[in-house]
Specification:
The chain is mainly α. It is built from ten helices and no strands. 24% of the residues are buried. 78% of the residues lie in helices and 0% in strands. The protein is elongated, with a radius of gyration of 20 Å. Helix 1 crosses helix 6, helix 5 packs parallel to helix 8 and helix 6 packs across helix 8. It folds into two domains: 53 residues, Arc Repressor Mutant, subunit A (Orthogonal Bundle); 134 residues, Orthogonal Bundle (Tetracycline Repressor, domain 2).
């Protein structure tokens, strides 16, 4: 049985993961170097390699943690809840993640732009299965007259696009809005947009 990590080891591992997130989200996997990660972590390169044997190992660990967190909001959508409110709550959870975890969102976006070489199996497996399951739930809600007719999968894509935009295009958004915090009004806009789209007519 492996010994539990000491406090210093835990601190260094956390520093490496945080530094890796900063560097990879800024430069992508191809553009990032171990020297950059080590410098950002405040460690020597040999010390970093004691904890992670390669750049790929750090990046893979970051993606694994990211995907677990990224899928949770969709998992949390309650099949037995009010359909409109459940979908609105999902959209708001995704928006909060863009606000609180912008580097993670950009890391994910960079991976996708590069063709998802490290997570293609997850996208075509776990993520696809989850979207298929939740799309079936949305389809049942539509059939029951609880939602306006929409394409369930493209609805989920729309929620991703509208919420993750605030993290992935943060520089553009803030350049246009100036000193205004984009998240102050984004939540209300997203609520209004999807509520109008999904609420059944009289």
């Amino acid at each position: 049985m492996a010994k539990p990590a000491t406090r210093i080891q835990q601190k260094n591992q956390t520093a490496i993961m945080d530094a890796g997130l900063e560097v990879f989200s800024k430069y992508g996997f191809r553009g990032a170097t171990l020297d950059q990660v080590a410098e950002a972590a405040g460690l020597s390169k040999p010390n970093l390699l004691y904890y992670f044997p390669s750049k790929d190992a750090i990046y893979t660990a970051l993606l694994a943690r990211l995907l677990e967190n990224w899928l949770e909001p969709l998992h949390a959508m309650d099949d037995a809840g009010d359909p409109v409110e459940e979908l609105l709550a999902y959209a708001q959870r995704k928006l909060v993640m863009s606000r609180d975890y912008p580097r993670e969102s950009r890391l994910f976006a960079n991976e996708i732009i590069q063709g998802a070489p490290h997570i293609k199996d997850v996208l075509a497996g776990e993520l696809r299965d989850l979207v298929t399951d939740k799309s079936a739930v949305i389809a049942r809600w539509i059939k029951a007259g609880k939602l306006r007719p929409v394409d369930p999968v493209h609805l989920i894509f729309s929620i991703w696009s509208l919420t993750q935009h605030y993290a992935d295009f943060d520089v553009q958004v803030r350049a246009i809005l100036g000193t205004a915090d984009p998240f102050d009004d984004a939540a209300a806009h997203i609520d209004t947009t999807f509520r109008r789209m999904l609420t059944p007519g009289p």
